[in-house]
């Protein structure tokens, strides 16, 4: 087992910048997923082709940099499992967003912080820190507030909320897997391309299994534009995503859910006029406090290691 290569004392501001960029792009991705139904895209079909598009864009970038991505051995196995652990929770989120709203799904991405930290402590991939634990507990409190809301976009109970709440469990497992089994000497972009390619292969199986159409109801400027937007978002998102994991590790990476929660609620309001409920607003405040506390703890650890 090889832990993801990260600096013992990473540049905290570099990490913060990557964290904000990754979390914001994750929130934006949820917004595009929400828009899929209005332009005739089956959510999971959009997810499939956005993975393909994102991988294609990244591959072009690698070729232009004369770094042709050709994973083999442990990198290939890593890509296969990363792709599966990436596709399944995203398929669940893309489906649930139509029923519970983009703001709710974005807030669900705050849960992996708690779960990843617990797994990292159990596997001794991270050290216990009181302030970090307090930050995680604030994230837990935000998640509890969110879970008590459990409403659909029409204000009534939706079983899709349970699907959305199951997503962070898989994401936490994926965070730990990528850190423990990161192939030695592998490039972040190469790992991103591999994950997107095998994630797309997984989505093909999912669409076939459930008899879901592979394309939109009709190809037009709106459906093509949404695919382009989601593909570009994926290409940039998973580049910075893997850079962040390589730099700062799985627990720090899992904070992207907190950033996505805040930006997702804001974007859901601006684009879809989804007015946040009191519970969602309180949850957003709690996870934001948790984000600050965890970052302060990471900063102190970095200074102590310097």
Describe the structure.
- The protein is mainly α and 306 residues long.
- It has one domain.
- Helices cover 76% and strands 0% of the residues.
- Helix 3 crosses helix 4.
- The protein starts with 11 loop residues before the first helix and ends with a helix.
- The N terminus is likely disordered.
What order do the helices and strands come in, and which of them pair?
Elements lengths: L11 H24 L7 H22 L9 H27 L1 H7 L2 H12 L7 H20 L10 H21 L7 H23 L10 H28 L1 H4 L2 H17 L5 H28 L1
pLDDT averaged residue by residue = 81
Percent of residues in β-strands: under 5%
**Range of helix content:** over 70%
Number of helices: 12
Given as residue ranges, the uncertain stretches (5+ residues, pLDDT < 50) are: 1-9, 151-155
**Domain tally:** 1
Distance between the termini: 26 Å
E-strand count:
0
Our Rg estimate from Cα atoms comes to 18 Å
What is the structural class? Answer: mainly alpha
The gross shape turns out to be: globular
Order of helices and strands: HHHHHHHHHHHH
- In this structure, how is the largest beta sheet organized? none
**Looking at the chains present, what oligomeric state does this protein adopt?**
single chain
């Amino acid at each position: 087992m090889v832990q993801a290569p990260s600096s013992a004392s990473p540049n905290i501001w570099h990490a913060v910048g990557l964290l904000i960029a990754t979390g914001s792009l994750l929130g934006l991705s949820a917004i595009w997923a929400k828009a899929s139904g209005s332009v005739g895209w089956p959510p999971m079909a959009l997810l499939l082709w956005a993975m393909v598009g994102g991988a294609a864009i990244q591959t072009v970038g690698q070729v232009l940099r004369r770094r042709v991505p050709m994973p083999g051995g442990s990198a290939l196995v890593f890509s296969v499992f990363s792709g599966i652990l990436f596709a399944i929770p995203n398929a669940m989120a893309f489906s649930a967003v139509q029923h519970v709203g983009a703001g709710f799904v974005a807030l669900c991405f705050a849960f992996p912080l708690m779960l990843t930290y617990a797994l990292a402590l159990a596997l001794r991939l991270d050290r216990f820190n009181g302030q970090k634990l307090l930050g995680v507990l604030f994230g837990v409190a935000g998640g509890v507030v969110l879970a008590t809301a459990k409403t659909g976009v029409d204000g009534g109970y939706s079983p899709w909320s349970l699907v959305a709440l199951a997503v962070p469990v898989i994401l936490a497992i994926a965070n730990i897997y990528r850190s423990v089994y990161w192939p030695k000497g592998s490039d972040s972009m190469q790992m991103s391309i591999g994950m997107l390619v095998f994630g797309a292969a997984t989505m093909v199986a999912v669409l076939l299994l459930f008899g879901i159409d592979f394309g939109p109801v009709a190809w037009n400027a709106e459906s093509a534009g949404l695919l382009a937007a989601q593909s570009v978002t994926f290409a940039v998102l998973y580049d910075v995503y893997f850079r962040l994991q390589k730099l700062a590790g799985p627990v720090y990476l899992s904070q992207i859910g907190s950033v996505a929660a805040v930006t997702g609620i804001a974007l859901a309001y601006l684009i879809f006029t989804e007015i946040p409920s009191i519970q969602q607003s309180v949850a957003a405040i709690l996870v934001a406090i948790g984000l600050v506390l965890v970052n302060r703890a990471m900063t102190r650890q970095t200074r102590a290691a310097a």
